[in-house]
Design a protein that fits this description.
With about 450 residues, the protein is α/β, with parallel strands linked by helices. The chain is about 35% helix and about 20% strand. This is Carbohydrate kinase, FGGY.
Length: about 450
C-alpha cells in the first residue's frame, strides 16, 4: 500500500522583492514553502525592471520540485502578484519587451495629450477611478508602447497583467481578470462598467485578452495533467478575499504595511474630485464589484519618525516594539486639542518637548492615528459599517489599535492576524475546485479592542 498523498493547492505569491510558492492543505495550513529572490535587470532605457526570464524559469522549476514530491497531490494552482505591470506576448506566447517597472518615469506630454482628449485630467481620473499616477496607471504603459514602439505593438497578440501572465505559463490560456483591470489602471470606466472610450478608440482593447471572473479555473496545458489552474489575482484584492468570505456584515479592512490601505467593499458611491485628490480610488473584488479604497503612506512615515525619536533619545528602535498604551500620557498630549490630520504633520514637531522616548512615541502614534482616521473616513458612506479589521504591522501595535478604537467608538475594532493573507485569498477563491472540506472559520485570528 502506498501512503495516501495530501491534497494541496499550490499558490505563487510574486512580490516585488520576494517570490514565494506555498502549498496549503485542506485546512489552509502551510505544508510547504519555497522562497526566491532574483537580481533585477534593465530595460532598453537602462531603468531597473523585473527579470521575466528568471521569473518564468522559477515558476517551472518550483513546480517541478513539488510535483516530484510524492507526499503531495496537487489539485490546483493559482497566482497572485503586484499589479500595474504588463507582459506583451506575441502569437506564440513569447514576451516582446522587458517587464517595465511601474515606477518608470512617464512622458508628461503623452499623458497630458491623452487626458486632454478625454475631458482633462479631472474628468479622466474620475471616470477611471484612477488618480493620475504616470506608469502606475498601467493602461498608459500599453498606450506608450503603441505610440513609441508601433512595430512591437503590431506584433502583440495580447498584453496580460503579471498575475495572468503567470497563469498563462501553466494553462496556456490568455485571459484578463477584473482585480487587475480595476486597480488604478485608467482602463475601466466605473460608471459604464466597461472599458473607457479611450481604450476602444485607440484600438488597445483589441490587445487585451477576454475578461473572466477571478474565481475561474482552466485545465493545465500539459497532457495528462489533472490539476486546475486559476486565472491569477492582483495582490491587494486577493488579501481581501478571506474577509469577504468570512464576514457578511459591512466592514472596512485596513491593510497596514509601508502603505496603509483602507478597503471598503460596501461602498459603491461614485468618487468625488476631493476624494481623488486625497488618494482615494476604487479597487475591484474578484467578482467584479467595486471596493472603495484610500491609501496612506503611514508605515513609511512611522519608520522614518521612530528613527528620528530613537536617534534623539539614543535608544534603538526595538525599544518601541511592545509599548503598552499609557492613557494619562495620551490625555496630556492631546489635552482636548485637535490633532492635525496631515500625515507629515509630526515632522514639524520639536522632540525636545518630550520627557522621554515613550512620550515622544505616544505623540507620534497620536498623529499617525489622526491621519489614519481621516484616510479611512474617506471610504465610508451612509451605509453604516459594523466592524473595522486591521491587519499587518500596525495590528500588533497596542497604542495604535487602542487610539483607533477610541476614534471609532460606534464600530467594533479588531486586530486581525492571518499568515499569508494574500496567498490564502488566492487559494480560497478557487476553494471548490480543489478542497473537499468546507471553508474553515478559524483562518483569521481576531483580537477585540475596546475604546
Amino acid at each position: 500500500m502506498g501512503k495516501t498523498r495530501i491534497p494541496v493547492v499550490a499558490i505563487f505569491d510574486v512580490g516585488k522583492t520576494n517570490k514565494k510558492l506555498f502549498l496549503f492543505d485542506e485546512r489552509y495550513q502551510i505544508v510547504f514553502e519555497r522562497s526566491a529572490r532574483f537580481l533585477e535587470t534593465e530595460d532598453e532605457d537602462g531603468d531597473a525592471c523585473e527579470n521575466l526570464e528568471s521569473l518564468r524559469l522559477s515558476v517551472f522549476d518550483s513546480l517541478h520540485e513539488v510535483f516530484r514530491r510524492d507526499e503531495f497531490d496537487i489539485k490546483a494552482i493559482n497566482f497572485t502578484s503586484y499589479g500595474a505591470s504588463f507582459v506583451y506576448l506575441n502569437e506564440s506566447g513569447r514576451p516582446l519587451t522587458p517587464l517595465y517597472n511601474y515606477l518608470k518615469e512617464y512622458p508628461k506630454a503623452l499623458e497630458s495629450a491623452l487626458h486632454a482628449k478625454y475631458g482633462g485630467v479631472g474628468a479622466f481620473s474620475l471616470q477611471t477611478a484612477s488618480p493620475a499616477l504616470g506608469s502606475l496607471n498601467s493602461g498608459l504603459q500599453v498606450y506608450r508602447v503603441q505610440q513609441e514602439k508601433p512595430e512591437i505593438f503590431e506584433k502583440v497578440k495580447f498584453a496580460l497583467h503579471l498575475p495572468q501572465y503567470l497563469s498563462f505559463l501553466v494553462s496556456g490560456q490568455m485571459y484578463s481578470d477584473m482585480t487587475s483591470i480595476g486597480c488604478h489602471t485608467a482602463l475601466w470606466d466605473y460608471s459604464k462598467k466597461a472599458y473607457h472610450d479611450w481604450v476602444t478608440d485607440t484600438g488597445i482593447e483589441k490587445k487585451l485578452a477576454p475578461i473572466v471572473q477571478g474565481d475561474e479555473v482552466f485545465s493545465a496545458a500539459f497532457p495528462g495533467s489533472t490539476y486546475k489552474v486559476g486565472v491569477g489575482l492582483h495582490d491587494s484584492s486577493s488579501a481581501l478575499i478571506p474577509y469577504l468570505l468570512n464576514f457578511h456584515e459591512p466592514f472596512v479592512l485596513i491593510s497596514t504595511g509601508t502603505w496603509c490601505i483602507s478597503l471598503n467593499p460596501f461602498n459603491e458611491d461614485a468618487l468625488t474630485e476631493e476624494q481623488l485628490e486625497k488618494d482615494c480610488l476604487f479597487y475591484m473584488t474578484y467578482a467584479g464589484t467595486p471596493v472603495k479604497a484610500s491609501r496612506l503612506f503611514a508605515g513609511y512615515e512611522h519608520e522614518t519618525q521612530t528613527k528620528r525619536i530613537a536617534d534623539h533619545f539614543q535608544v534603538t528602535t526595538a525599544k518601541f516594539k511592545n509599548i503598552e498604551i499609557n492613557w494619562s500620557l495620551v490625555e496630556k498630549l492631546t489635552g482636548g486639542n485637535k490633532t492635525p490630520t496631515a500625515l507629515e504633520a509630526f515632522r514639524n514637531v520639536d522632540i525636545n518637548q518630550f520627557a522621554d522616548h515613550v512620550e515622544a512615541y505616544h505623540a507620534l502614534i497620536v498623529y499617525l492615528v489622526a491621519a489614519q482616521v481621516a484616510s479611512t473616513k474617506l471610504t465610508l458612506s451612509n451605509k453604516k459599517i459594523q466592524r473595522i479589521f486591521v491587519d499587518g504591522g500596525f495590528s500588533k501595535n497596542n497604542i495604535f489599535m487602542s487610539l483607533l478604537a477610541k476614534a471609532f467608538t460606534d464600530v467594533e475594532i479588531y486586530a486581525a492576524s492571518m499568515a499569508q493573507a494574500t496567498a490564502i485569498g488566492a487559494a480560497l477563491v478557487i476553494h471548490k475546485e480543489w478542497n473537499s472540506q468546507p471553508i474553515p472559520t478559524n483562518i483569521i485570528e481576531l483580537r477585540y479592542y475596546r475604546a
